[in-house]
Design a protein that fits this description.
This protein is mainly alpha-helical. It has one domain. It is built from two helices and no strands. The longest helix has 53 residues. It starts with a helix and ends in a 14-residue tail after the last helix.
């Protein structure tokens, strides 16, 4: 009886740790999504500025051109980095959720009250 209680406690601790890990991974995914959105905006803004220059809508300014090129390149790098981090976090989250479900299935549940309490 003591072994069962200890193993249930251990399983509960493991489940609680996995739930904390899943929450942390969800927060990581949210940060990655925000960074990816920001990077798309930077790529778009830099691209629009370069296109506007090429079409003659704006004059050439070396500082603004360097800024536009830097926005495009930086946005691409930021997007790629956060995209791969998001993929890794998603895979880790899936694995943790699967393991949590397996641990929950291993916990022996018992009916309290010995009957159907809703039937009358």
């Amino acid at each position: 009886m003591v072994e069962t209680a200890t193993s249930v406690t251990d399983l509960s601790d493991q489940i609680a740790q996995l739930e904390a890990d899943i929450e942390q991974l969800a927060a990581t995914l949210e940060r990655c999504r925000k960074a990816m959105l920001f990077s798309k905006i930077a790529i778009g803004a830099g691209g629009i500025w370069i296109l506007a220059y090429l079409l003659g809508a704006v004059g050439f300014g070396p500082i603004t051109m360097v800024g536009a090129i830097a926005a495009v390149i930086g946005g691409i790098v930021l997007y790629g980095s956060n995209s791969s981090t998001a993929k890794q976090a998603t895979a880790a989250m899936r694995d943790a959720e699967r393991l949590r479900a397996d641990l929950i299935d291993r916990v022996e549940t018992r009916t309290v009250g010995g009957g159907n309490s809703f039937a009358q």
